[in-house]
UniProtKB/TrEMBL annotation:
PANTHER family: HTH-TYPE TRANSCRIPTIONAL REGULATOR BETI (PTHR30055:SF234), HTH-TYPE TRANSCRIPTIONAL REGULATOR RUTR (PTHR30055). PROSITE patterns: HTH_TETR_2. Keywords: DNA-binding, Transcription, Transcription regulation. This is TetR/AcrR family transcriptional regulator. The keyword Transcription applies.
Length: 221
C-alpha cells in the first residue's frame, strides 16, 4: 500500500515548534549557523527533527527553500514595521529609533543566531537575489530616515542599519534566546540610542513604550 504524504516520525518530537514545519526550521537554523549551508544536508535536518527525509520534502521542496525561509524571517518583520511607521505621526528620529530597536530585538530573541546566515557565502548567490533585494530595500529605509536627520550624502547614513545588525556579534549561538521577554532588551535600547547619537540626533522621549505600542499593533493585526 502506498504511503501517505508526510510519513510518520521516526522518533518522538525532539525540536521546538508547534508544527513540523517550525521544528524543521529550528533544526535547520542550528545546523546552518553551526555547520554552514554547503555541509548541511536535508537528511541531517530530518534526522535532527526526528522525521523521515521524505516528510521534510512535504513541508519544503529543497534545502534552498528552508534557507530562504530563515533568511526572510530576519527581514520581513522589519519591513512590515517600516510600512507601519510610514503611517504613524512620528518624527524621523522616533521612526529610526523604533526600526533599530525592533531589528536588534528580532535578531537577539531568536533561539539560534540566524543573523549569521547573512555571512554565509551562499547568501550572495543568484538563488537568493530576491532576498538581497528585500534586505537592500530595508537598508535603504534606514538610510532615508537618517538622511532626513543629517542630510543626503552624509557618511553616517549607513551606520544605523549596521548598528542594528551588529547585535549578531554580541550574542551566543547555543540554542537559548538571550532575551525572551515582551519588552525591548537592553542591548537593543543601547544600539537604537547609539544609532541616533552617531547622527547627533536628540533621543525621543518615551521611545521605548511608543515603540512597544507600535510593535503590539503589528502583532495584533
Amino acid at each position: 500500500m502506498a504511503g501517505a504524504v508526510g510519513r510518520p516520525r521516526k522518533n518522538s518530537p525532539r525540536r521546538r515548534g508547534n508544527t513540523a514545519r517550525e521544528e524543521i526550521l529550528d533544526a535547520a537554523a542550528e545546523l546552518f549557523t553551526k555547520r554552514g549551508f554547503a555541509t548541511t544536508s536535508t537528511h541531517q535536518i530530518a534526522e535532527a527533527v526526528g522525521i523521515r527525509q521524505a516528510s521534510l520534502y512535504y513541508h519544503f521542496p529543497s534545502k534552498t527553500e528552508i534557507f530562504l525561509t530563515l533568511l526572510s524571517g530576519t527581514v520581513e518583520p522589519a519591513r512590515k514595521l517600516a510600512e507601519r511607521l510610514a503611517e504613524v505621526d512620528a518624527s524621523a528620529q522616533e521612526r529610526l529609533w523604533a526600526l533599530v530597536a525592533a531589528e536588534s530585538r528580532l535578531l537577539y530573541t531568536t533561539r539560534w543566531n540566524v543573523g549569521r546566515l547573512y555571512q554565509l557565502p551562499i547568501a550572495a548567490s543568484a538563488e537568493f537575489a530576491d532576498f538581497r533585494e528585500a534586505r537592500d530595500d530595508l537598508s535603504q529605509t534606514f538610510r532615508d530616515l537618517a538622511a532626513i536627520i543629517v542630510g543626503d550624502g552624509d557618511p553616517r547614513l549607513d551606520l544605523p542599519f549596521h548598528l542594528a545588525q551588529s547585535v549578531t556579534d554580541m550574542r551566543p549561538n547555543n540554542g537559548q534566546a538571550p532575551y525572551t521577554g515582551k519588552g525591548i532588551p537592553e542591548i537593543a535600547v543601547v544600539l537604537a540610542d547609539a544609532a541616533l547619537k552617531v547622527l547627533d540626533a536628540e533621543l525621543p522621549k518615551d521611545r521605548v513604550p511608543k515603540t512597544l505600542d507600535i510593535l503590539s499593533g503589528l502583532e495584533d493585526s
